[in-house]
Predict the 3D structure of the following.
Amino acid sequence: MYRYTIFSFIFFVLALPSCTDENPTPKPPTYLKAKLPTHSYHNESFEAPFESSISDLYTLKSPTDCDSTYCEQEIYLGRVLNGTINLFYKRLEHTDSLPSLINFSNKEVDFHKIKADQIDFDQIIDRENRVFGTLFELKGDVATNYQFYLTDSSKNFLRGEVILNCVPNYDSLRNVLAYIKEDLNVMLNTFSWKKN
């Protein structure tokens, strides 16, 4: 019995160094690899006075707090993307209220500056349909990677933001964010105000 115990102890001591790897090989991080379908679109007429093309993956939720001067509406991005585009429409009381709405939208973007590594923006100018605005792309581990606003500069103002239902990890979400950006570009470039 005593010999068996000594033999087990010696075996354990000799085997112990082989269990440790002095030069471990680092494992690459794993990222979300969502299988994303081909882009396709349909035209959608919203409760507020505008219409646009949105992805066939997306569905409109019922609008809330809607009247002739204000409306909130969510666009559900579907199970694959698991998020929403939140839209906030405001009818301009007079053109003097436009700068304060633009400033509010810019402050909403600034709120995420601490976490954002970089903020890019694209101007939207469609003189024919009187659609003017800015699309902001916030790069980094932020709660919303895309925000935008649109106006006709006289009667209508719309602010939007994309919210994904996941922990923000920019590196793992790059392919999803690129996919959503393509859909946003189509949505904003086909946007038009309804005739009053």
